[in-house]
Amino acid sequence: MGNNLDIQSIFVLVKMHELRNVKLVADAVGKTSSAVSKILSKLKLHFEDPLFIQTRKGFEPTTFIETNISHFEAILATFDSIQPTDFDPQTLKQEIILYGHALFWDNFGDKLYLALRKEAPHAKFSMRQWNLEARTRLIEGENSVLFGIYDETLPQVIQQKALCNISPAFYVRDDHPAQTFEELKQYPFVITRNPGWNDVRYPLFERLASLGHRITADVEVENTLTIENIVTNSDHFSFTMSRVIPKNCRAIGLPLTNLNLHCVMSFHRAKQNDPQKTWLYNVGERVLSSLSN
């Protein structure tokens, strides 16, 4: 059995498995029934298998077809993913995997998705939570991107391209009794527990401690909406980015100057010349920049 198959023949084979009717396949691929029959005959010789058996209910696939149909479908999916040099997001049809921390998705995810969807209406977007498993996949070469904060622990194989700078801030409900950071320290602190963000926050708290401002979390919560509800309905305070202070809340500045966190888009360095990554970066930068104004 050789491997000199063309994509059109595989497409006919997959359509035959789907439709079980030569005439319907011919209509679907824009050929005559005679041409489809000739392709199927060629495939029978190639694979040394009948492929489809005619019954009173139509053509039924053989065990060979049922066993290998997923492989034929994968070949077509891979072929469809091939991008021309003149990249155009309007023609994208494959899955685009985006990772982010909960705080990022909660505040920017909808805006980023809608901006991407507007330019790539046929693509499938998968917006996933960043975690250790995702980190491993990205490092091993998964064709995905991460939107988040610069992470000095990521290896050099991951390129972290700067999007914008953001300022950290504590926040409380509008009518919270505390007005300054010193007053705030006596109240309970609730913190987001998410992989990646804690890598940024804990060094920040160490820096505060070195200045005599020791902050200890009273409760850790993974869901940011829960944290916002706790803050708006109690004397708790929490930590976020200054540009995304929740509604009915206000910021209380940190006792540090010139403290910015670098928001980046990260991806495998082998993909640095991929036009899709350039497009994702440009849209991401535009969305985040518009939110900072």
Offer a concise description of the structure.
The protein is 43% helix and 22% strand. The protein is α/β, with parallel strands linked by helices and 293 residues long. The chain has a 5-stranded mixed sheet.
Care to describe what's here?
Keywords: DNA-binding, Transcription, Transcription regulation. One of its GO terms (molecular function) is DNA binding. InterPro entries: LysR-type_TF (IPR050389), LysR_HTH_N (IPR000847), WH-like_DNA-bd_sf (IPR036388), WH_DNA-bd_sf (IPR036390). It comes from Vibrio ponticus. Belongs to the LysR transcriptional regulatory family. By secondary structure, this protein is α/β, with parallel strands linked by helices. It folds into three domains: 7-81, Orthogonal Bundle (Arc Repressor Mutant, subunit A); 89-145 and 270-291, no CATH class; 168-252, Periplasmic binding protein-like II (D-Maltodextrin-Binding Protein, domain 2), CATH 3.40.190. Helix content is 43%, strand content 22%. It has helices at 7-19, 22-29, 33-47, 63-80, 102-119, 132-139, 181-184, 197-210, 224-232, 275-292; strands spanning 52-55, 58-61, 95-100, 124-129, 144-149, 158-166, 168-173, 190-192, 219-221, 238-241, 249-252, 261-268. The strands form four sheets. A five-stranded mixed sheet has the order 4-3-5-12-6. Strand 8 (190-192), helix 8 (197-210) and strand 9 (219-221) form a beta-alpha-beta unit. Helix 2 (22-29) packs across helix 3. It is elongated, with a radius of gyration of 27 Å. Mean pLDDT is 85; it is low at 196-201.
